[in-house]
Amino acid sequence: MTQPIATAIAGSLPKPAWLAQPEKLWAPWQLSGEALEQAKIDAMRLAVDDQLRAGITIIGDGEQTRQHFVTTFIEHLDGVDFVHRKTVRIRDRYDAEVPTVVGDGVNGFVSNNLEYLEEGMLRLLSDHATAREMGQRSQEIARERFSIERFARDWERAFEMVLGRPGLGEDPVGRRSDAEK
């Protein structure tokens, strides 16, 4: 039997209006707490089902659990500052205000106290070993938190949660005929 061409969506699917305003960048969630977590799972289930019904062969979560494809990965890290954002150009299409990221005493200094920040900067300028150590820790944190291995584990856990069982290679809804299995 001829194998079908692998198909996938690229990017996000619109979120249901009960979860967040569809097609709005950084739309705030409509719910909070446990209700929000359950709604994200429900939206992911709908996104997976829509793709399966459409015949998509490589299934994604439709980015139903993220407000933005970049900031969601960093919003729970120490030192992520969503108040003092920086404007950056995204894919030469639009400008976006993104948070800054620093772990206080780990890979930089975070404080609202200007004297503390000044002392930290002077220390880094005069103590090259500390500056090098903080730079190395920044690289380690980035590798640990943003590695492809962690990304793959997180995706697998999400699909196991949505599909209710482990094993991403399996047909989750039994749509293949016995001849295709």
Please explain how this structure is put together.
A hairpin with a 3-residue loop joins strand 1 and strand 2. The N and C termini lie close together (11 Å). The protein contains 4 helices and 2 strands, in the order H-E-E-H-H-H. Helix 2 packs across helix 3. The longest helix has 21 residues. It has a domain of 69 residues. With 181 residues, it is α+β, with helices and mostly antiparallel strands. A two-stranded antiparallel ribbon has the order 1-2.
Number of strands: 2
How many H/I helical runs?
Answer: 4
User: How are the strands of the largest sheet arranged?
Assistant: 1-2
Task: Encode the helix/strand succession as letters.
Answer: HEEHHH
Poorly predicted runs are: 168-181
Question: What is this structure's SSE topology?
Answer:
Elements: H1 33-53, E1 80-90, E2 94-101, H2 114-126, H3 128-146, H4 148-163
Antiparallel strand pairs: 1-2
Helix pairs in contact: 2-3
What's this entry about, in short?
The protein has a domain of 69 residues. 38% of the residues lie in helices and 10% in strands. It has four helices and two strands; from the N terminus they run αββααα.
List keywords for this structure.
disordered C terminus, two-stranded antiparallel sheet, 181 residues, alpha+beta
